[in-house]
Amino acid sequence: MRDRSFIAAIAVVGILAALVLAAAVREADPPLHGPPNVDRDEVMSKVESGSLSFDEARFYAVEDEAGVDGAARGEGGHAEGGTREEKQN
Amino acid sequence: MPLLRWVLLILGLGAFLFAGVRSHLTRPEPFVPDPRLLRAVAPVAPALERTVGPHGTYFTDEGGGAPAALAYLTDQVDPEVKGYAGEISLLAAIDRAGALTGVRLIEHSETPSYMKEVIASGFLERLAGRKLGADLAGVDAVTGATVTCNAIREDILRGGALLAKEGFGIEVSGVPSSQGFFESALEPRSLALIGAMALAIVAFSIRSFRAGRAVSLAAGLVVLGLWINIPLSTAHFTNVALLKIPASSNAPLILLLAFVLVTGLVFRSRVYCDYLCPFSAVQEAAYALTKRRPKVSERVWRAASVTRHLLLFVIVILASIGGFHAVGAMEPYVFLFNPEAKVLPWLYVGAVVTASFFVRRFWCRIFCPCGVCVELVASIRRRRGRKTVVEDSR
pTM of the predicted model, to two decimals? Predict the structure, then answer.
């Protein structure tokens, strides 16, 4: 293996490692800004049925601190009050 | 290059310090579950109210008469039971007969792949309907996630036993006492690990006997990789730095961390990497099939070896400041020994193993952030100029 192929191997493994790291971040602790237009009632019913952990639900359904997190805490939120866009409209 | 490594090291230590100060100053409010979640675990009781008792906070229907159910969050009642990386928060409920009516996972810091395995196996569903005591304690753990399963079972059982007595006046019998370090250390898998570690020390001590290293690595592959399934990962080091100390019942992990520390300080070398790491064994085996020496210039080698430090730095920042405690478990061997039905991890493992056919211990020398942690321990008392097995063979 010479310099060029060595660097290419490092680049390939580096890219794959970065993708795995990004996936680990996504799975380890969901970001506060999840994807929009998620049916939050469906997410909550999945949490209730046990097919989705609360941790995972936060990724799918939370757009801000008062999202499913707030709903699950009994404070209202997107699961009960719609998305941020719906509220603004 | 050494200057860059020092800068990364100091910044990394600063990140841990920042995370420690921040967690000390900002304590999150305790989680209060939604009524729908409470109904999901305790369908026999339509409305549960929050109650504070001597053993912690729980939820019960004390409208008059005897309560029908009692729900509790395992991290909000006694005793504290740790999983692989800290306490696991579960919402559990028991009825007045002392049977578990439902369990939901709320939050955890376990390695995501282990917890996914636990959930996918239906372990939590198997607990539901069981009576507190020997019935619940008898549910089999999921192979490959034993520590996590034991913690879940013990946490629900011990907290539930206290609350059953307080809420229903039930005395739960058959609650196993918490496993201590020495009990765990005397289990066959811990004894096998001790044997593999002893073999590694012997092989290191008589380095002139080259076959000893191969035998030691093979023992590491079988015991650490295939049997106990705890190849050391960067997450173990970042968790310790974040004061997420392993439970005393997790003797294999404690023994492994102690091995790295003691051999690093006594032998001033990366004995774990060179003689015990199961992924080193896999890479060495791949390289042994080709034995092609790479014609790579020294300049490229030096530049490439900084990648390990950069990767460790990114993980340290994500784990400390970002709060992503499990990201350190991203090394290829985690996926090799805990296979997932996903394309990306297999591409990743495949690429690393393929490269190892042409470059000896490709991952260890270019990428392994865990190896840098082991090296840092060894460098505390390392003599200048002393080389590792891999460096000697370049």
Answer: 0.74
